[in-house]
Design brief:
CATH architecture of the largest domain: Alpha-Beta Barrel
Bound molecules: N-(aminocarbonyl)-beta-alanine, zinc ion
Radius of gyration: 21 Å
CATH class of the largest domain: Alpha Beta
Structural class: alpha/beta
Strand content: 15-25%
Length: 469
Amino acid sequence: MARTRIEGGTVVTAVDTYAADVAIEGGKIVAIYQPGTFGAGAADDVVIDARGKYILPGGIDAHTHMEMPFGGTTASDDFETGTLAAAYGGTTSIVDFAIQSKGQALKQGLDAWHQKAEGQAAIDYAFHLIMTDVNETIAEEMGDIVKEGVTSFKMFMAYPGVLLVDDGQIFRGMQRAGELGALICMHAENGLPIDVLVAQAIAKGNTAPKFHSITRPQIMEAEGTHRAICLAEMAGAPVYMVHLSAERALTQVVEARDRGLPVYAETCPQYLFLDDSDLARTEGPWGEFEGAKYIATPPLRPKSMQEDLWRGLRTHDLQVVSTDHCPFCMKGQKELGRGNFAKVPNGMPGVETRLYLLWDGGVRTGRISMNRFVEITSTAPAKIFGLYPNKGTIAIGADADLLVWDPEKRHVLSDKTLHMRVDYTPYEGQEVVGAPTHVLSHGRVVIENGVYKGKKGDGRFVKRGTFAL
Ligand code: URP
Ligand code: ZN
Ligand code: ZN
């Protein structure tokens, strides 16, 4: 069997940095050598030169929404385009959110997402399941879903009438997750009072995109986070706060973790690099409506909170950076909310830009180490979501989902050169340093120096293990 060898690079894991050559066979890492000690390879070996570069575990994005129906439209990336864009940016696995529609069995929702993804993906994918209707029958069914390798469930305190479930349902879902070894992901924003503020703003004629953040104040995220933690503590279950954006929400997580509770949280690049002033932008092709590009939920927060989130990442109170990739084009999609910010579909593109932004704005600025970069983008999501040790590290026997990372590669982020199927990037014109030269999935090179070498359908559905931390 042909081997692939990555030679001359520096391996970086969540804990170690060392010079080594990595050998791959049958899609797995089979050996890690002291540099140059491999000896003569076979004639058909593929050799990748990683001199001057790092060898990293492929990125794992634990929060994406491909082809998600939302806000009267559908997220513009599907599993083909979204996973390809992910691969270009160095992400080799995603965990996407399947959705149970109200009144449906969980399995119906899951099957619908399998159909969307089957045969389409460039990289591996797994699913969480969003529950919109939790009763005793559904609680029972959660056990069947876990057996299918879908070991985490998301519930929403936000979006009344659409995705919101009440506290009784959340608590019952948490109890059952605790029994099953599953993990509950919480969207912790109190949607009912938020809807009152939104209606009041619209009635006053406050319809511009900037009112999205004004009507979703951080206190509603802090309250939701506190409530989710209390419910999880009472249910005896771990909980994972998705897309944490705000200082007061973080304080709740810190307090819970200090008490030894199994509370975990992710933030997203948009909360680390953008702020609520972006929602007030009026310069650019969309004029007064430019800010719609930045409408996602929770909203962008005051700039000062970025440093709180960086601190949380350094102190391990935040464990993961995922993207919440949920792209909508300005033309024909975000546009639905022209004249009424509440009708702008919520979500931003980001699956391709996560590693670029975190390397450039995290590692290069000294905010986090290279090892912490690997941990928050790959190892921690793998451990929290039952993908470890097959994924999330560089070790013998692990899947050869690897990046050869050029730490000095300069490029400018632009809608014209990125691959996500959306007509803008929130980071247009920003120069970043650091990019993969090679992206390997199961040992196959899928991206080489910006050229796609794989084929649609190479990515596989991955069954995940139960929560093991
Ligand atoms: O604005 C967002 N985040 N859209 C996706 C749905 C969600 O709440 O994660
Ligand atoms: Zn959410
Ligand atoms: Zn989301």
